[in-house]
């Protein structure tokens, strides 16, 4: 029964490295305990799912191209929500985490896939930001607010990050 | 019975255009599915509810005047949480959304009212920021943390945005 | 029974003064109504729990020292998430709150302790940011994501701030 499960959902709105790490640590922790986890990536959060330097066949409008160029392409390009200092903060944090043997964001994302975390890209945000399916990582789902709410109503823990 | 319903609450703390849009899309989606939705606007979130260029009869202290002048007045004046570039980012996003026939924030807010979404302004934050009832849009409620918690305990989905 | 209680949890990720105040107002409101409240402080949120100018016996690596120096030490040093203006915004808000007899953040934190709010520092974030137990306020607990999830699954209201 759905009521018996400790389902978890997250709206990942932010595209900051630190918040992305936090969201995947929570997601993987919950999934490792056997729970169903759905992460719904919207707005800047979509940048976490972008592939690096991908060329899409889609013909983009001027503003879509501009958004595309200016937004970070994938987990290695994200900045911190605080103390980013033009990217130096993000580099420092990645270095420290490596030294302390803490998983990097790409590793956490791989883990999430392995644990069956359901990764959903928000199609409306993709449309607004001009992001094509070809530009996002493989093995993810696509949906809108109804998809999200359907999962959230079955979940015990719902976070907006 | 309260337990049977999929009530939703949101603390809308942020006054960013992108986060405001996201919160109303979720609110309207939930309300359209027949759920009771309460949005509790606090701190910078109050700016979403401000009328433009309104004169309040209330005599304001120096700092209240300053906060009032510096904070955005209503949905058309909000900036983005990222890539705002002095307002250019917000303009770009509004232009793109219009081109793609996605509802604007003022339209989403009208829809929310029509769907019966309960909009509550946090009275303590109004006091801190020196915002008077005359300065906020009509048809909303006022309350404090107890109002919020009362709704949140009956809800299945509670978000802080 | 756990199901009968209106437990509340918060992940306090942000170290901004305004968000810290909001989180403690919600926590204290819920605790005053007799509910069990757990606040899980992670990443920048740890700065809220730091003592001022404390010397730790721990020998720190270069980057730990740098993070330690650059991050705000305790509630009096935090900035606002918006309109901070190099600290002036935070000063203004504290002044206004004092004039209106609203509790300051240190007072809210004392109240939380008195009401039995469970304050947990995230050990993984402490490790990443190089923060030692000696540097955090007394009377708090320590834990990881499993601690958080254990509380969240028993709670009705779960927020990420």
UniProtKB/TrEMBL annotation, chains A, B, C:
A single Pfam family it belongs to is: DrsE_2
Alphabetized SUPFAM superfamilies for the sequence: DsrEFH-like
Name-wise, this protein is Peroxiredoxin family protein
Supply the source organism for this entry. Answer: Melghirimyces profundicolus
